[in-house]
Amino acid sequence: MLADLYLKEGHINKAATIYSMGDEKDLIHAYEIYLSNHMLNKAKNILDRLISSYQDDKVRTIALEGFDTFKDPNLLNFASKSQNPSIKAKAFYELGNYYLSQGDKNTALKDYVSVVLLTPDKQDVYKNAVIKAAKILISMHAYEDASCLLDKLNMSSLSNQDAYYVKSLKRRLPVCKNKNLLNGGNQ
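Above: the chain's sequence. Below: its structure in token form.
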């Protein structure tokens, strides 16, 4: 293929331009070329084209990873519609982080709770979402809800540092009386 020849000869722009006229696989290749060569505007344009044309988890994963570069929450919203629970949970977690950094605690809390409902408790994203959601609830004076949420953590699976931190949070909170809070998160 001509694009491969251009790439071998070091004509990156020409190769990427040809790839950008192809199918999903070629568009992904063009995106990767632009991204690795710090041509971010061109990479974002290709990513937007991929998103508008392809709805599969390969593109949703690229969008999730692309958020780190482009800081566009629309990429995370797109990734959050994945059928893959792991991609979906990571997207909601990053959305939570994004909205928390923007000062929108309510939306961040909603996204962290989505992670809790979607993810098995053995994953780091689950633990991190529980802790961040509990901290938001504490800041909102929803102490019992924070306590119930922290009760969902499997303390034996936490690192010593995380276990110590969770115990220090729980010491300041009332005992959880609503054991069924967010029951869908621990299946």
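Residues 85 and 152 are 19 Å apart (CA to CA).
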